[in-house]
């Protein structure tokens, strides 16, 4: 179980670091948005590239932030039924839902979005807007985001199995296993 918990910790650390980058992107997106609006209204000048940059940052926040949010147990959950279960029942429900719904869905979406990225990469896709940005890097964010979410799902399953076997307890606030 220790090697699996080490893998879980490595995945958690990766998504934690990505979460910090996403937190910085929130601030950066606000600054770019404010600067773009100020330049547009004050100097009657603007660029589609700045607007697309905001969209790109938002896309990264959504796709990469999902795994960070899942790691922190701050995702949306319908808790009417969940809260009536025992701690052990909650662990089982989390594990079954992650194993049979989240991970397969994420891997399928990553697989299906890969050709979308590859097509853009192969042709060197650029924005159709004047002053726009290259498109293929942001299209890579789609499969990468789903892979990161699937990896975090694997980490969560490992932690649930360890908790069910009594190796660790799960800190409900941050979903970190404690030994």
UniProtKB/TrEMBL annotation:
Pfam families: DctQ
Annotated keywords: Cell inner membrane, Cell membrane, Membrane, Sugar transport, Transmembrane, Transmembrane helix, Transport
Boundaries of every Tripartite ATP-independent periplasmic transporters DctQ component domain copy: 30-161
UniProt membrane topology term: Multi-pass membrane protein
Transmembrane segments: 20-41, 53-70, 91-114, 134-151
Entry's Gene Ontology molecular function annotations: transmembrane transporter activity
Subunit composition and interactions: The complex comprises the extracytoplasmic solute receptor protein and the two transmembrane proteins.
Record family assignment: Belongs to the TRAP transporter small permease family.
Protein name: TRAP transporter small permease protein
Naturally occurring in which organism (per UniProt): Bradyrhizobium betae
């Amino acid at each position: 179980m220790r090697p699996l918990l080490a893998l879980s910790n490595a995945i958690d650390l990766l998504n934690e670091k990505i979460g910090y980058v996403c937190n910085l992107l929130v601030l950066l997106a606000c600054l770019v948005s404010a600067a773009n609006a100020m330049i547009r209204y004050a100097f009657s000048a603007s660029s589609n590239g700045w607007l697309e940059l905001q969209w790109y940052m938002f896309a990264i926040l959504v796709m990469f932030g999902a795994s960070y949010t899942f790691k922190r147990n701050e995702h949306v959950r319908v808790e009417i039924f969940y809260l009536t279960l025992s701690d052990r029942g909650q662990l089982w429900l989390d594990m079954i839902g992650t194993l049979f719904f989240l991970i397969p869905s994420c891997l399928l979406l990553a697989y299906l979005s890969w050709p979308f990225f590859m097509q853009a990469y192969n042709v060197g896709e650029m924005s159709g807007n004047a002053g726009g940005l290259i498109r293929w890097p942001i299209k890579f964010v789609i499969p990468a985001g789903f892979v990161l979410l699937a990896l975090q799902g694997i980490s969560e399953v490992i932690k649930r199995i360890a908790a069910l076997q009594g190796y660790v307890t799960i800190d409900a606030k941050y979903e970190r296993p404690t030994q």
